[in-house]
Amino acid sequence: LYDTRSFGLGRYRIAKPACASGKCGFVQQMTERLDQLGGRGPRRQHKPSAMRNDAGGIAILVAPMYIAEIAPPAKRGFLVTFNQLNIVTGISVAYFSNYFILRLIEDPAVNWRVMLGVGVIPAVLYLLLLLIVPESPRWLVQRGHDDQAIAIMKRVGGDEHAAGEYEQIKK
Fold first, then answer.
1. I need a surface site. Which of 48, 86, 102, 142 has the fewest CB within 10 A?
2. How many whole angstroms from its chain centre is CA 166?
């Protein structure tokens, strides 16, 4: 079941390329927009947009599964709900920040750049924070790294949680 949803790589290893792919799509879209403004190229924004949208979709699907795998049972529902709330809040903040940028910067040659630049801040922050997120204990146990899995479970929920969760994973 776990291998079919994440191609045998685990949720954690899928999230990193998804995040990087989103950044690549952003950079491609920005450079193509600059080419359009300079009159050097045809309009072809569909590929970077699709790349960025696919990366966002992967991240939105993988994050709750990872949270559900690693969180102690008493906190799983809250943490997954909190993740979804943060997504909705982030979308709302993006809309309002773009609205205010349009109001503050009237030059259309500049305001879109500022909007894209502001969008890079949370994306880079997400990527950097993803570097300190531990592997999924279930994935580690499936790969024979039981000691690492137990250490992560102890760090997340204590000794009792680690013992119970490890037994459940091994079943």
1. 86
2. 26
- Cα–Cα distance between 119 and 20 in angstroms, integer? 14
And the tokens for 1? 């079941």
Q: Please check whether residue 11 is in contact with residue 66, taking contact to mean a CB–CB distance below 8 angstroms.
A: yes
Sole residue written with tokens 């309002």: 96
This prediction's pTM? 0.61
pLDDT per residue, tens digit, the chain (171 aa), is 344 444 555 555 655 565 555 555 555 555 555 555 554 544 544 455 555 556 667 777 888 888 888 888 888 899 999 999 988 998 899 889 999 999 999 888 888 888 888 888 888 888 888 888 888 888 899 889 999 999 999 998 889 888 888 998 888
Closest CA to 26 of 119, 129, 122, 128: 119
